[in-house]
Amino acid sequence: MNDTAVFKSGITLAVIAAICTxxxxxxxxxxxxxxxxxxxxxxxxxxxxxxxxxxxxSGVTESKIVVSPPHELPGSEAALIYRVYAKxxxxxxxxxxSARDGYAGPIRILIGVxxxxxxxxxxxxxxxxxxxxxxxxxxxxxxxxxxxxxxSLVDPEPAGxxxxxxxxxxxxxxxxxxxxxxxxxxxxxxxxYFDAHSDQVFADAATxxxxxxxxxx
Amino acid sequence: MTPSGIxxxxxxxxxxxxxxxxxxxxxxxxxxxxxxxxxxFGLGIATLAVLVASNGLVSATxxxxxxxxxxxxxxxxxxxxxxxxxxxxKAWFPSLDRSLGIFIPLIVxxxxxxxxxxxxxxxxxxxxxxxxxxxxxxxxxLLLMVIGVFRELLGxxxxxxxxxxxxxxxxxxxxxxxxxxxxxxxxxxGAFFSLALAIAAKNAMDRRHHKKRDSAMPRRARSPxx
Lengths: 217, 226
Prior knowledge:
Chain A has two helices and five strands, in the order H-E-E-E-E-E-H.
């Protein structure tokens, strides 16, 4: 290839790159609003099941605290806490934590706890457990995660927070005990954390709220 | 192009040279997402859209592109199109996008798309290239859906679950025949077995077809079976 050919090829590449960039930019502009609205809606919707039977003010997603590691919550990555208020008074907190000892990596879960320390709902947000066995922790696949609703550290006592096979109070999943163990442990640790730090959770100033939305719960 | 020419092209894309069944291209997404019908359908349609658009663009620009720089240009075009499709999925089918995850951006690496750009679109007029994208894309999408239905039926005992990811609304469990199923079918090995069965079925049908034709015309020299 001689010099003019190289030059021409360069121009062709640049023009095509510009056209492609324009195409992506245009699509981005057209979809941007919908994408942001979708993500917000998804976030709000995914928080809802962990707050069964509670009345609360809207805008839960705005009251987020990011707890960076190291922290006493389960998981080695950043945990999220959403504060839930009703008419300005705290009613519950939502924790997004990682259960470390899943069968295939960490399991991201959402745990709702009301101010008295009672579980209001648990949702599995992200996991890589075995399809057909461990994945029945998903609320769309079975009701297993619903069994924690209404329980707290006094019902049962901390020693009872385990699967029946380990002398605990809760059901396991047929063919999968590692996954339930990991989740129950994470819920228990979250309850212990909330028990010890509940004042702090609701007292944290708004300035500590991380406005960045890159970490989806 | 005559209608019979087009129908022949469809036969080629869907059957004779099906990108997944015969050319064995794009196996990674094919094996990874086909655990349910909805996932197979979503990725199939996304791939089809990218293939049609990339064939069209490659063909439209073929006059100005020197062969030395064609590969970077294909990559540019395909990557931009995939980004657009990803944004469109995020805007209109957010749950399907969540379910397919990384496999939407990974359409870039589906060699079926580069292959069609190189083999067909860079040498043929725009209309013909778009039709080629359509038939090859449909062949791939259809295979994804067939394997999706098969694995979902065996592995979960259901059919068309989670159609809400396409149309919105409450999570749907679809037609449930049994509670749970043969686990292996939705695990990765099940994907390999299903594809192998699909290929075997296609070969068996081809062979039977050839036999029929050969016995109908015994005098003629046997065409080499493909």
